[in-house]
Every structure is written in C-alpha cells, then in structure tokens.
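note to self: dont lose this again. the chain is below, predicted strucutre after it. 194 aa total, dont forget to put it in the shared folder this time
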Amino acid sequence: MKNQINKQALLDTISSWDSFLKRKVHLIACGGTALTLLNIKESTKDIDLIVPEIKEYEYLIDRLKELGYKPLTGYGWARQGGFIFDLFRGEAVYTTELLESPLKEGNHYLIKEFANIYLGVLNYYDIIITKLFRCLTADVEDCLALIERKGKEIDIEHLIKRYYETASYSVYEEKVNKNLKHFLKKLKENNEKQ
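---
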C-alpha cells in the first residue's frame, strides 16, 4: 500500500468515482487532504472528506460498496490494498462538530466540479480548528503552514473567537482550549523568527 497520495492522484480518484455516480454528491475535503488540494502540502496519507448531505452520503456509500470498497475503521473505506478514505457524514470531522454546514456560502472553497461530484475544501478557520482539536505535532505544523501561505486571508482574532465557540460545544472543551493556547504560542514563536 502506498503511503502518500498527491493532488493529481486525489483528483483522478474523485474523477473515477464521478463516472459511477448518477446523482449529485458534495464532498468537502478537510485535514491534510484539504491542504494537499490547496497546494500547501505535496501529499497526504489520510484522505478526509465530509459528505454534508445525509442522503448523498448514503448514496455514495452504496456506490462505493459496488466498487469494492469495504469499511475498515469507524469512518474509513478502502478497496484491497488501496488508500483509506475517511468519509464524515453531516457537519462533523471525527468528533468535532462544525458550527455550520460546510456547504453554507463562505464555509468552503470550490476545487473542481465534476459531472456529479462537487469537490470543495473546508474554509481555513475550520481546517485549523478541526486539526487543533486533535493537536498532533503534524496538525500543528499543518496549521502553521496554512497560516504562512494564506495568512493575509486569515484573521487570527476571528479564528480565536470561532475556535472558542466551537470548543464550547465539545465535551473536551478545557483540553481543546489548551491546544489553542499551545498553537498560538508556536505561532508567536514562528512570527518572531521571521
């Protein structure tokens, strides 16, 4: 099994899915997948996609089963020896509930519209929030890279406000708020180095 998938391979896979679909399905990339599609990372090992509409999620899962995909983890689907696709239904990434639908205007950026698949990426704020809720070293590095590349489009005060609001709905509120403090310290250190 390959370790990483790049932007073109991601688009090729989504294109192949598209050819089997007969109805519209909205996919919103999050995590490292979003950063790969935004050209911030060269590749990703995890393929994370939100399917915000429940009926579209159910339809997509039925088609993927027909293509030989099987469930491997709570969210993960893969074919023999292939990449695992984590498909999140509704308005959550893993256990992080988003404040609003990722389909709402301003909550995602369009990457490509295929015949039946609409492929977008989550907005920068929610990418950072969902990564910092998990807060692995790679997540912090990814968030720093996103701010380094897209900093002019990211209002840190708005990020903090949105982060705390999202955290207020989490059962791990205290823990995830510590993650933000850790990240802001790292961000300040990075800014001082430049």
